[in-house]
Amino acid sequence: MAGRRQSKIRGETLIRRQQEPPICDRFRTRNEVGWISGLAFGRCFFWGCDVSSFRRRARLSRPIGLLVLCVVAGCGNGKTGPLDALAAAQTQKPKTDGQNGVFMGSVLGAVPDVRFLEKSSSVIVKGRVLDVQAVGTTEMRGQKTPELAASIQVDSVLKGEVRDGRVSIVHPKDPFPGGVQLSQGDYALYFLKKGQSGSYTFVDPLTAKMNITSRKTPLASAARTPMEKLKVELFASLSDPAAAVAETATKQVLLVGRESSVEFLQRIAASKVPENEGMAYAGLIHLGDYSLLRQAIRFAETPSADTDSQYWQSRIAASIGAIGDNRVRQALDVTKYMRKVTCASTALAEHPLDPSVLPQLYPLLLSQNVGLRRGAAHALRAICDPSSADVLAQALNDSDRTVQYDAMMGLAALENFPPSIPAPSEDIFNENPAKYLKSWKDWWDSTGKQKYSRSK
């Protein structure tokens, strides 16, 4: 067949045409690929056409596509990292739908960036959805879809002005699963712009709703700028009990900048206002900065009748447990997720942990605060350092079952989970803990104590 050729891709025979269909409405043929393809890719990326379709049609590899993005986003202007490139990309003015006044496509797809959203919003509020009602029909992404009005009970206004403590957000029900969806009871940050008849619309149909802590953060109210208010809200969310909230906050804080965030939190910790101090300690630990770990532990161990202080004491304990989780993530990054990590210290032999951390964790296994014991046991289990074997063996006798389980699993990880000594899931362990604890106590007395005494 003239003008066609056959090639084998993943075991399937595909027929390719030499002449390609139109690309992004402007660049028409395969003969115009090259540097023009780069411009076309950039146009697609910023203005919302089908980028994946373009890359396939133009036969661009993924690395070339990323290189084009880097050039368009500003890598050639002294930008040194991917976050800087993305930040530069987000200064581009997005194309809007004239009828609905919403973005045709988010610059980063479904990846939110608080810096971009803050600049694009005229109003930013934090609150809960009271109800959602259909108010008509509209069109979105070429499909007819219900138009909804959501009533939001506003707890905090981070940018702009809101009257009567409520806002109404009018938005189309997005047919795309990754679009913003509002349901009664949802609690979040909402990035808005003014709509018609006193209502508001989202600045971006994919990312204008962001997970955030539902706790009141007085320090955010005292902040001077909208971005500072957002930072404080994110800092307070780093150790939130809701995993989705903590994960979102961590991603956004890293986008804002880890080093500047650490410096900000260190200044907050020096304020000596208990609620702010506790928030700062928990946030620093969560971000992997252990410079104030000793002060954080002292704060968590100090008895207090204040409910806010008690909350942050519990979050500090949970953040201490996250020290181990951070080491596991670091090990996975180092190994590029190419193999299973059973013991983080083995994978991170060339990336040692801050030497001040372990000596501060060991005494916590004897704390009267069960939350701190749990946090320390979880951290030591995941860090998996041979010098921890003795304290983990002692923790097998703890009165708390969670501490016992993490201590047992820490020893199992050090021994690379030997088949001769069972280390089951926590559910199975809880059915008969004495059985499994006895196995590991016997192993410690007969073998482990002598073996790991050399690691001290």
Which terms summarize this structure?
456 residues, 3 domains, OB fold (Dihydrolipoamide Acetyltransferase, E2P), two-stranded antiparallel sheet, alpha+beta, six-stranded antiparallel beta sheet, disordered N terminus
How would you describe this protein?
The protein is an alpha+beta fold and 456 residues long. It folds into 3 domains: 4-87, no CATH class; 114-210, OB fold (Dihydrolipoamide Acetyltransferase, E2P); 218-455, Leucine-rich Repeat Variant. Helices cover 46% and strands 15% of the residues. It contains 19 helices and 8 strands. The chain has helices at residues 35-47, 51-58, 62-73, 82-89, 114-120, 218-222, 226-237, 243-256, 258-269, 274-286, 293-301, 307-334, 344-347, 357-361, 370-383, 389-395, 401-414, 426-431, 433-452; strands at residues 4-9, 12-17, 123-140, 143-159, 166-172, 187-194, 200-202, 209-210. The strands form 2 sheets. Strands 3, 4, 5, 6, 7 and 8 form a 6-stranded antiparallel sheet that branches. Helix 1 packs antiparallel against helix 2 (51-58), helix 10 (274-286) crosses helix 11 and helix 16 packs antiparallel against helix 17 (401-414). The longest helix is centred in the C-terminal third of the chain and has 28 residues, at 307-334. It is elongated and about 75 Å long. 37% of the residues are buried. Residues 1-109 have low confidence and may be disordered.
Q: Which overall shape is indicated by the principal axes computed on the Cα atoms?
A: elongated
**Beginning-to-end CA distance, first to last residue:** 75 Å
Low-confidence stretches are 1-109
Main structural class: alpha+beta
Q: Under the CATH scheme, which class of the largest domain?
A: Mainly Alpha
Overall pLDDT score = 80
State the helical fraction.
Answer: 40-55%
Quantity of strands, as a count: 8
Q: Would you give the CATH topology of the largest domain?
A: Leucine-rich Repeat Variant
Sheet with the most strands, sense and barrel status: 6 strands, antiparallel
Note the run of SSEs as H and E: EEHHHHHEEEEEEHHHHHHHHHHHHHH
Give the helix tally.
19
How does CATH name the architecture of the largest domain?
Alpha Horseshoe
Task: Please compute the radius of gyration using only Cα atoms.
Answer: 27 Å
What name goes with the CATH superfamily of the largest domain?
Answer: Leucine-rich Repeat Variant
| Total tally of structural domains | 3
In percent, how much strand structure appears in the residues? 5-15%
